[in-house]
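[SOLVED] Need 3D model of a four-part complex

Original post:
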Amino acid sequence: MTISPSAVDGAVSETAASQAFEAIKRDLIRGRFAAGEKLAISALKAEYQVGLSPLREALNRLSAYGLLEQHNQRGFRVPPLSEQELEDIARLRIQLECMALTQAMQQGDAEWESQLLAAQHRLLRADQQPSQVEQWEQAHLRFHRTLLAPCGSPWLLRFIGQLHDQFDRYRRLAPPNPAIRAQLDAQHSELVEMALDRRIQDARSLLEQHIQLSWQVAQGATGC
Amino acid sequence: MTISPSAVDGAVSETAASQAFEAIKRDLIRGRFAAGEKLAISALKAEYQVGLSPLREALNRLSAYGLLEQHNQRGFRVPPLSEQELEDIARLRIQLECMALTQAMQQGDAEWESQLLAAQHRLLRADQQPSQVEQWEQAHLRFHRTLLAPCGSPWLLRFIGQLHDQFDRYRRLAPPNPAIRAQLDAQHSELVEMALDRRIQDARSLLEQHIQLSWQVAQGATGC
DNA sequence: GGTTTTGAAATAATCGATTTTTTGCGACTA
DNA sequence: TAGTCGCAAAAAATCGATTATTTCAAAACC
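Solution:
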């Protein structure tokens, strides 16, 4: 058997389409494109160094995921931002993540506790340099994923991840607020403490506050 | 200005890709393909009368939607069925749909009540012929959509729709159970009554029973 | 005998070119 | 002068062919 790249590094070899999907997804959440902007496919082709077919496949996936709008015969658009949609996303995040957190705390085992502490540590360390935003964002996403991971519901986690990406689109466009940011950082550690102690009600209510505080920051996105 | 087809009938003109998406989606939910089956792209090309590019775009969308699994360099597969996943889907449906129902009953107006009665009537009428399953399925889906429509949360409705499609994949594969079916039909009318009277608690608990009863039917899918 | 290698066939992914549809703008008209 | 019309340019969608990767069965090896 010829050894495929996937057998070497354990990861499945990526196609041009899947690489383009990941890259464009990242840039959409990052706020690289203006809300409402129409994507110029030939320009994207050059920027992401990818052919037309894989590019279109990536854009189709992103549309089904909700990070793009697809209009028949008139291409792809970046969805507009609205205060109202942000409210929808934030409220739903609270509902779904609190649901998942409860189940995670009931079902999480020692292995989970370890991974949660590891994720917390990575988040604290990544926090230092303001130049490496992308590093922190990745650690932050991973922290929240780890927190809810053992909830036992793949579909719930899927929806939460999707909403998180939508929410981050707003948050990352908003002007930073150091005071609130410090509070949010503190809450991450408090969440870990409560999770380890299985203080379900406390953790739920803190997670709700956490999302509401982020929401407050994210609201700055629709102002500009 | 040349009058485009869309300007005539009010609908946006469809592309080959979007038509293929709808057709294959319908067939996946219908159970036309075996669970776990690998899709033969060249065969699909012939069956859906569509070229390779639009077909692949449709399959990419379906993967992002969750009705297919995409594995890099090895094509598309129909997701396997499992008792466990069905449980996940059903439980989450209960949570999300009860949430939406509460809000819909609080916010629904007279127009909603009219549309709900209309949807109920269509469902009862479609029920008659056992030959036209597809008609009933459409009316049924529409009834449940109408019931929750005024909840005010587009994202919640999106997730509910997605879960409903997943659930139906199981339900439609399961052997029919006339006794339970009669109960389910009765519940639809009861739900309308409670919705009109704004008996929120009653309606929530009935909707939960309704989903649990459907779940019982759907469990027959993993047996065969 | 069981495992590994090999290579042809099958399949997936991508490319380049073509077709179809929309868009933008200037001329025409009431 | 506001509203149509028509045409050229631009963009989207699709096609047909090509390239890359996987699969599978037979041959070689230990």
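Edit: Residues 1-10 of chain B have pLDDT under 50 and may be disordered.
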